[in-house]
Amino acid sequence: MSSTPHPDKMRVPQHLSEAELHQALDELDAKIKTLRNRAHATAANSENTYHEHIAALEVKRAKLAELVGPAGRPAPDRPTSTWDEIRRGIDTLREDLRNII
């Protein structure tokens, strides 16, 4: 990619099937993981845009996750597990970090 995507400009396709949405989410997770690894391996004070690119991809991933619908979310009458709470905490932390950067 020749330029760093901006989180506000991220779009998601609206025509994907459920299976294609899950595949897209998996692919975005892999891309985000790769970019995080590259950011960690980069020398301090170097000029890179990995964090900005990660933030943009996470916005896109969140939008795709919304399209998955209620199947990807816990049912309201089901008690939340510890893992659900941890995941929600991580998502909140990610959002806070995105707002700082």
pLDDT averaged residue by residue = 75
Structural class: mainly alpha
Radius of gyration: 15 Å
Q: Strand portion, in percent?
A: under 5%
Counting DSSP H or I runs of 4 or more residues, the number of helices is 3
Separation of the first and last Cα atoms: 21 Å
Unreliably modeled segments: 72-78
Largest sheet: none
The SSE order reads HHH
Helical content band: 55-70%
Overall 3D geometry? globular
Strand tally, please? 0
Coiled coil: 18-45
Keywords: Coiled coil
Task: Tell me what the structure shows.
The protein has 101 residues and is mainly alpha-helical. It contains three helices and no strands. The chain has helices at 18-41, 50-68, 82-100. Helix 1 (18-41) packs antiparallel against helix 2 (50-68). The longest helix is centred in the N-terminal third of the chain and has 24 residues, at 18-41. The two termini are 21 Å apart. Residues 72-78 have low confidence and may be disordered.
